[in-house]
């Protein structure tokens, strides 16, 4: 990837994602900038049918506009009893511009009639997974690096935790006996879909730079 002066541009306006990217790349000495730093750029319409398609569309559109390497992610929640929904529509499950709480309430209403009882100390509604697709696009040579990460869990009818964002308060991790929102940021980065994808991507980037060196 071409040199951007220690700055990594991430194509997102999600404050929770910005915080996680800043935490992930701080040890590498990179300053993360987001679309909050470039308000003149229009929003990219996420109309792909897969997380990977949306991630590439965002990284390429913003990268070409700025003439700099850009990292984009598209991520969401896939619930088994809902045939993988909300999927790529996770951020707008309750409608365009929906807030996290509205999306969570819609998810619970959809699942309530399909409740599956499991004696785990919490009423669990369905197995599910978070999925994250990353795309790092460099307009200098038109190259793209990709990575994808997942984490398995359950959707619980009792939200818990004040950390994280999105569906984290409903995403229960049996091995931790906590929701994603009850983990520290360090714990979440170790096991989350985004943390896994970031580690895979940085490994690919290091390998590419080594080959070019």
Chain-wise SSE layout:
Layout: E1 7-10, H1 15-25, E2 31-33, H2 51-66, E3 70-79, H3 100-112, E4 124-138, E5 143-156, E6 171-173, E7 178-179, H4 185-191, H5 193-212
General description of the model:
By secondary structure, the protein is α/β, with parallel strands linked by helices. 31% of the residues lie in helices and 24% in strands. It is built from 5 helices and 7 strands; from the N terminus they run βαβαβαββββαα. The protein has helices at 15-25, 51-66, 100-112, 185-191, 193-212; strands at 7-10, 31-33, 70-79, 124-138, 143-156, 171-173, 178-179. The chain has a 7-stranded mixed β-sheet. α4 crosses α5. It is globular. The N and C termini lie close together (12 Å). The model is unreliable at 117-121 (pLDDT under 50).
Helix content: 25-40%
Give the strand content: 15-25%
* N-to-C order of helices and strands: EHEHEHEEEEHH
Shape descriptor: globular
Secondary structure: number of strands? 7
Summarize model confidence as the mean pLDDT: 89
Report low-confidence residues grouped into runs of 5 or more. Answer: 117-121
Distance between the termini: 12 Å
Q: How can the largest sheet be summarized?
A: 7 strands, mixed
**What is the rounded Rg?**
18 Å
- Spatial strand order of the main sheet: 2-1-3-4-5-6-7
Number of helices: 5
Structural class: alpha/beta
Short account of what is shown:
By secondary structure, the chain is an alpha/beta fold. The protein has helices spanning 15-25, 51-66, 100-112, 185-191, 193-212, and strands at 7-10, 31-33, 70-79, 124-138, 143-156, 171-173, 178-179. It starts with 6 loop residues before the first strand and ends with a helix.
């Amino acid at each position: 990837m071409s040199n951007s002066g220690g700055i990594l541009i991430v194509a997102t306006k999600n404050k929770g994602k910005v915080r996680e990217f800043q935490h992930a790349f701080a040890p590498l000495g990179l300053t993360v900038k987001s679309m909050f730093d470039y308000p003149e750029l229009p929003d990219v319409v996420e109309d792909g049918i897969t997380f990977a398609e949306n991630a590439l569309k965002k990284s390429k559109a913003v990268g070409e506009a700025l003439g700099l390497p850009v990292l984009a992610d598209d991520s969401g929640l896939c619930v088994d009893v809902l045939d993988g929904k909300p999927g790529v529509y996770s951020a707008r499950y309750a409608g365009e511009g929906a807030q996290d709480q509205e999306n969570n309430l819609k998810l619970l209403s959809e699942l309530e009639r399909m409740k599956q009882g499991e004696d785990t100390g919490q009423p669990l509604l369905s197995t599910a997974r978070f999925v994250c697709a990353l795309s790092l696009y460099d307009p200098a040579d038109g190259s793209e690096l990709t990575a994808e990460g997942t984490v398995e869990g359950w959707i619980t009818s009792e939200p818990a935790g004040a950390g994280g964002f999105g569906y984290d308060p409903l995403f229960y991790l049996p091995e931790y006996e906590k929701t994603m929102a009850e983990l520290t940021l360090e714990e979440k980065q170790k096991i989350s879909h985004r943390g896994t994808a970031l580690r895979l991507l940085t490994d690919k980037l290091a390998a590419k730079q080594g080959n070019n060196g």
